[in-house]
Amino acid sequence: MTVTDFANVPDAPVSEDPALLAALARDLTALGYTVDGVEALLGVEAYQAFTRDQPVPALLKTRDDDGGLAAVVRLWLLAEPVARGTLAAALPESGVDALLALRLVDADGPDALRAAVDLRPYGWPANDDGSGGAELWVASDLAAHQRPGVLRRDHVLGIGQASLTLAQSIVRTPVARALDVGTGCGIQTFHLLHHADQVAATDISERALAFTRFNLLLNAVELLLEKSAGPRIRRFEEILYPIEQPVGPHLGAAVGHADWLAGLAPGRLQDTRLTVAEDVTEERHQRPGAEHPGVILLRQGAGLRRTNLLSTELAGFVSVCDGELTVGQIIGALAALLGREEDGSASDSFTHGLLEEIRQLILDGFLLPITPS
């Protein structure tokens, strides 16, 4: 993974000094600044209110607490000013000057500091075998309830319900490469790093990429990042985008279909057997009294819910795809039935056109290859 750019973008956290970020990470770890640690500090009711952007119970819970954990909660989660001395005691290895240099805080008068970003703990539990869990920290722009005024045009969102839903919907199959489009603060990239060998995080916003780089280096130990940049990514095996339904499994299946077709030797598609996917239904429309339907549609009931308009020959092909006959046998029968007698080779206009339509139905998940057991 290449993380060498966007180390010092205006109005974003600075990540030019990995050693300084490592010191901050050790301070936060020592404080117990984790999801569970914050919940234990606030209590269940105040914590649940905080997750609904209702900070008052958390403010009341921490206002008389002089501990270091309470100080960073007030600073970065509740966006309240904190005395310099209190923060210096809470983060002794990194220190106040480092926080200012990293653009994580701003001065609030001569003796206090105020959050410049939202820096909160984030994590997920380990698998039953102890693998896969994480305890991280994620920086993003302060939200509307944490600061006055209108949010900036290039506001970098933090961890919200949409990003959590997307993260939960992805099938975590180990892959060589993955692409996070519109990375924002990098939340999806963190998850991808646990099952992809290489990850490319992209965004049109330089500030977003600066936040992502900062977050990656702050969590470098937990994420097991290598210090050296990896090779360029040329092909991506997983693509994430915040679509409104959990389509991760279907996107993964689509990549599998493309790989299967790409692996076929020339002319071998005719030798395969296909079946119709379980979620696919056929829809026919015809005028009253008409002998034949004027429109035949295939519809997917899951995933991307595609609809495909079928020609007469393609509708006939799909109707007998039960895995018994090969693609070539079905095409030959259709050619005879429709009076399209040709030599049956892939160069025939009828056969070639039908094979192209069949390939597209496989790519879109309407038809599935039957592989030998």
What descriptors fit this protein?
2 domains; 15 helices; three-stranded parallel sheet; about 375 residues; three-stranded antiparallel sheet; alpha+beta; Outer Surface Protein A, domain 3
In words, what does this structure look like?
- The protein is of the alpha+beta class.
- It folds into two domains: 223 residues, no CATH class; 122 residues, Outer Surface Protein A, domain 3, CATH 3.90.930.
- The protein is built from 15 helices and 14 strands.
- It has a three-stranded antiparallel beta sheet.
- Helix 3 packs across helix 4 and helix 5 packs across helix 6.
- The chain is elongated.
- The chain starts with 17 loop residues before the first helix and ends with a strand.
- About 4% of the residues have low confidence.
Give the oligomeric state of the chains in this entry, treating copies of one chain as homo and distinct chains as hetero.
Answer: single chain
Biggest sheet, open or closed, and with what strands and sense? 3 strands, antiparallel
Beta-strand residue fraction: 15-25%
What strand order characterises the main sheet? 1-3-2
Rg over C-alpha atoms, rounded to the nearest angstrom = 28 Å
Number of domains: 2
- Tally of DSSP helical segments: 15
Instruction: Name the helix and strand elements from N-terminus to C-terminus, one letter apiece.
Output: HHHHHEHHEEEEHEHEHHEHEEEEHEHHE
Strand elements, count: 14
Mean pLDDT comes to 85
Percentage of residues in helical conformation: 25-40%
Task: Tell me, briefly, the overall form.
Answer: elongated
Low-confidence stretches: 227-237, 241-245
Distance between the termini: 37 Å
Q: Structural class from helices and strands?
A: alpha+beta
